[in-house]
Amino acid sequence: MTTRTTDAGSVVSLGDDDLESVVGVDGPALVEFHAEWCGACQRMKPHLETIAAETDATVLTVDIESHLETAIEFGAQSTPTFVLFVNGQPVKQLRGAQTEQSLRDLVGRYNS
To answer: Which residues form the Thioredoxin domain (predicted)?
Structure first.
């Protein structure tokens, strides 16, 4: 399932076809590769929603089971995997559950 919203400050769930067009926007885009059955991924949802609402970063999620090729392309071998894109290019990858502050710090380093 692919969902797109245009509301600023919301987490967007994307699929194979539209990931590259969205991460190509100016500024940082934080992508979480996740799975519905992943408990750590479920615990990350409130952190991602807060970061989307309180920073200028675009926050996206990609379900690895529905979009396996995209997950492989970006090296998401475990869940959750976070990839930060800046101006369309992947610049940093974090694996496993993260604190909200570590994700904020990551986005903040690349926020213009």
So the answer is: 1-112
